[in-house]
Write a structure and sequence with these properties.
Number of strands: 0
Shape: globular
Helix content: 55-70%
Number of helices: 17
Distance between the termini: 43 Å
């Protein structure tokens, strides 16, 4: 594995960066520049030296844990199941419908291509963390690159993104309960039940305890999609309605591909995961395991379910199975629907917790006060997520909105910015650097392009205009969601949302 990592690093050409004069989170370094070696980031012989900055934000987020009552930095690369549980969940349930929208060939190419690109961008995040060990979240990275303004912008964006993801899990929970109970009660009640269950599971403060639940999450989503694939395969054995290509208006096809972006949108939590590892330099092993599992599962599940259901595939895909199998699949998938949301909720709560109490010693105390503070943060975040789930009651539209505003930036665009920041002043040092500079500029543009076009299709579809105006496109997306809110299954409605045409 070490040889593979070394080869991967050499091919990428990412080496220890010149630390900027704004060392850590400080505007200055008290007149001293950071010393740099020429070795690759992660090499055990390399070192980054600078005069310490007397600021709690410039230190390791959890500090010295030798005397701590609660220890956070105890994860190893092979116990980072949380990365798989966070990523392989709701995203996989929308992929068969993506193939129905854009065709088998384009869908497979995009799943593999975006997966490979997500692997690279995830690697860059790891390099940024090794260069700046004090980074715990996207807000910390924003502070390093842009100062206080960057911290607030990146922090707000990260929190909004994760809370929207939490909302999508609560929405899926209510769809699941309506399916299992044949709409046994008001959908709002199901949403509140999901809120309470998710909140209770979010109470443990360490990632290690959350990782125990993550194992069950992965097993449950795997079993659920296997049930669905078996059901549609047996029921539609003679089905032959697969289309290699599908002719769709560009806006509709592009909006469908944002669900693939969402399926790889685990990067927003990577800084937090690495921060709780014993050996952060081993993060790349967990990344390769994650991305290999992602691409393989996404390809198999999307292709098989689409092969046997064609254009009639449901989203979430568990509803495509015949007879009582959707109820069975949803029942089996319940742990994943809950736990994957809990992992995201843990990342959001940990961001607030670290931001508020970093360097105070309160995070490492096993006291009722510390537990109450964590519980209050989790309660507030899950309450916000529930409001979002009730306000935007259509699964695909919620995923599309999340992907449009946030996912492409955190998964692709920002990693390009991180690389350019790490390698500032070295873009033309060699042909390899020139090539990687072009690649990361492209990664940045992919994020920008995806945000622009993903927000814009509703306006293009309704007004027929040819401009590219993100603000107008976001307004149009809001109009579309508002239309749904006035339907029989609209916002804060007791109607059965499992019967909505997705």
């Amino acid at each position: 594995m070490n040889a593979i990592e070394t080869t991967f690093e050499v091919l990428l050409g990412i080496r220890t960066p010149e630390l900027p004069h704004r060392m850590a989170f400080s505007e200055t370094t008290n007149g001293s520049d950071a010393k740099q070696t020429n070795s690759t980031i992660g090499d055990e012989e390399s070192s980054l030296e600078a005069k310490p900055v007397k600021s709690k934000e410039s230190e390791d987020p959890f500090g010295d844990e030798s005397e701590s009552e609660i220890k956070y930095k105890i994860m190893t690369w092979c116990t980072l199941e949380v990365m798989i549980a966070e990523t392989i969940s709701l995203g996989i349930l929308s992929l068969p419908s993506v193939l129905a929208e854009i065709g088998m060939v384009a869908g497979v190419i995009l799943i593999v291509g975006l997966g490979a690109l997500a692997t690279y961008t995830g690697y860059v995040i790891g390099q940024f963390k090794l260069a700046y060990p004090q980074v715990h979240n996207m807000a910390d990275a924003g502070m390093i690159m842009l100062g206080p303004m960057g911290r607030e912008i990146f922090g707000i964006a990260q929190m909004l993104f994760i809370v929207f993801i939490m909302g999508s899990h609560l929405l899926t929970f209510s769809i699941m309960m309506n399916t299992l109970s044949a709409h046994g009660t008001c959908t709002i009640a199901f949403g509140l039940a999901g809120l309470v269950i998710s909140l209770l599971c979010s109470l443990p403060r360490t990632l290690r305890k959350a990782s125990y639940m993550a194992i069950g999450s992965f097993i449950s989503i795997t079993a659920a999609v296997l049930i669905t694939m078996t059901g549609v395969g047996v029921e539609n054995a003679g089905h032959d309605a697969v289309q290699a290509t599908v002719s769709k208006p560009f806006p509709a096809a592009f909006l469908a591909t944002t669900n693939i972006v969402f399926a790889y949108a685990g990067h927003v939590g990577f800084f937090s995961f690495i921060s709780e590892m014993k050996r952060p330099e081993e993060y790349t092993k967990a990344l390769y395991l994650l991305q290999g599992a992602n691409v393989a599962m996404y390809l198999v599940v999307a292709a098989v379910i689409y092969r046997y259901t064609g254009a009639d595939v449901s989203s979430p895909a568990l509803g495509s199975a015949p007879g009582i199998l959707p109820q069975l699949a949803y029942g089996v998938a319940m742990p994943s629907i809950v736990i994957a949301g809990v992992i995201n909720g843990h990342v959001a709560a940990k961001y607030c917790y670290v931001r508020l109490f970093r360097g105070t010693g309160k995070m490492s105390k096993r006291t009722w006060g510390s537990f109450a503070r964590w519980g209050a943060i989790a309660t507030l975040l899950w309450s916000m997520a529930w409001v979002i789930a009730e306000a935007i009651p259509v699964f695909n539209e919620l995923l599309g909105l999340i992907s449009a505003i946030f996912a492409s930036w955190f998964t692709y665009g920002l990693s390009g910015v991180f690389w350019l920041f790490l390698n500032y002043g070295k873009y033309g040092d060699s042909r390899q650097k020139i090539g990687l500079t072009a690649l990361n500029l492209l990664v940045f543009l992919v994020g920008l392009f995806t945000v622009s076009l993903a927000l814009f299709p509703d306006m293009m579809r309704e007004a027929g205009t040819d401009g590219l105006q993100c603000a107008v496109g976001l307004y149009a997306s809001g109009v579309a969601i508002g239309t749904d809110s006035r339907s029989s299954s609209g916002s804060f409605s007791c109607a059965d949302n499992s019967k909505v045409e997705h």
